[in-house]
Design brief:
The complex is a heterodimer of chains A (155) and B (118).
Chain A (H helix, E strand, L loop, with lengths): L1 E6 L2 E7 H12 L17 H31 L4 E4 L2 E7 H21 L7 H5 L3 H25 L1
Antiparallel strand pairs in A: 1-2, 2-4, 3-4
Helix pairs in contact in A: 1-5, 3-5
Chain B lengths: L1 H20 L23 E6 L6 H12 L3 H14 L1 E7 L1 H13 L4 E5 L2
Helix pairs in contact in B: 2-3
Classes of the chains: A alpha+beta (155), B alpha+beta (118).
C-alpha cells in the first residue's frame, strides 16, 4: 500500500491485489474485544466510580456497533476499491483515514488482549498463536502507511 | 521688612490650615481578602496515559493531536514521556471533563485513566 496522492484532505492509495485481500481479512476480524482496554481509574473510589465505569463500557460498546456497521459498508461499497492495471486505488478523506486507523488499532489491541497482553510477540509464534500475531502485524503495517500519509500531508 | 511680614502671615495661615484639615476620625482600614490557600481549591482529576507494548508510537501521537487538538511537537513530547517514563499526565480537569477525555482516549484503545489530583 503506497500513497499516490494527498491533496486538500483527500488521500489516494494504491494497493496490490494481495494487499487488498489482507486489508479485507483484518477488517473482517472486527470486533475482536468487548470491554474497555483499562479501567476508568486506578485509584479512585470504586463504589463512586462504578456508575462511571458502566458509562465507559456503554460508550465503547456503542462505538463498536457503529464501527462494525461502517466496516460492513466499507467492504461492501461498490467502487470503494477502484481496480487499475496493477491492483486497486483507495480514496480516503482525512476523517476516513482516522476511522480506519481506529478500526485497525482496535483489531490489533483486541488480539493483543486476547493473547493475554504479552510484552513480546515472538514467543507466541512458537506457542501456536501465529494467526493472531500475523494479523496484528498486518494491522500495524497498514496503520504505519496511513500515519505516514497523514504526517506527510501535515509537514 | 516686607519679607518678614510676608513670612509671618504665611506661617500663621499654614497653622490655621493644618488645624482645619486634620481629620477628626481616623479612616477605616479596608483589608483585601487574601486568596484562598491552594489546598482549599478543588484538586480535580488528572488524565493519565500509561505505556503499553502494543500501541504504535506514531499512533499515540496522532491520538493526542486528535483528542486535545495539540500541535505535533506537544503530542510527541507526551508520547515520548509515556514511552520513556511509563506514563504522562496529559491534563488536569474537573471530573466531567476528565471522564470525557478518558472516554475519547480509550475509544482509540489507549491505556488512559483519570486519577484524583493531589
Amino acid at each position: 500500500m503506497r500513497l499516490v496522492e494527498a491533496k486538500g484532505g483527500l488521500y489516494v492509495f494504491h494497493l496490490a491485489k494481495r494487499e487488498r485481500a489482507l486489508l479485507t481479512h483484518v477488517l473482517k476480524l472486527f470486533p475482536v474485544g468487548s470491554g474497555p482496554v483499562a479501567p476508568l481509574s486506578k485509584s479512585g473510589d470504586e463504589q463512586k466510580l462504578a456508575e462511571h465505569e458502566r458509562s465507559l463500557a456503554e460508550a465503547l460498546a456503542e462505538q463498536r456497533a457503529e464501527h462494525k456497521r461502517l466496516v460492513d459498508a466499507f467492504l461492501g461499497e461498490q467502487g470503494r476499491f477502484a481496480e487499475d492495471k496493477s491492483g486497486f486505488r483507495l480514496r480516503l478523506t482525512t476523517v476516513q483515514v482516522d476511522w480506519l486507523l481506529r478500526v485497525l488499532n482496535e483489531v490489533r489491541v483486541g488480539l493483543w488482549m486476547k493473547l493475554g497482553k504479552p510484552e513480546e510477540l515472538a514467543p507466541l509464534v512458537l506457542a501456536g498463536q501465529l494467526d493472531s500475531v500475523v494479523a496484528m502485524e498486518i494491522c500495524a503495517l497498514f496503520q504505519s502507511r496511513l500515519l505516514a500519509a497523514l504526517g506527510g500531508e501535515s509537514n | 521688612m516686607a519679607g518678614v511680614i510676608e513670612n509671618s502671615a504665611g506661617a500663621s495661615y499654614l497653622v490655621r490650615v493644618a488645624t482645619t484639615i486634620e481629620p477628626p476620625v481616623a479612616p477605616d482600614i479596608i483589608r483585601e481578602e487574601k486568596p484562598k490557600p491552594k489546598e482549599r481549591l478543588d484538586p480535580g482529576f488528572l488524565v493519565i496515559c500509561w505505556n503499553d507494548p502494543v500501541n504504535l508510537m506514531d499512533f499515540v501521537t496522532h491520538v493526542f493531536q486528535q483528542v486535545f487538538a495539540w500541535k505535533k511537537d506537544k503530542a510527541e513530547f507526551h508520547m515520548l514521556q509515556v514511552h520513556n517514563q511509563g506514563k504522562s499526565v496529559l491534563t488536569r480537569e474537573t471530573m466531567e471533563r476528565a471522564e470525557f477525555y478518558v472516554h475519547e482516549l480509550q475509544k482509540y484503545q489507549l491505556h488512559a485513566t483519570m486519577e484524583p489530583g493531589e
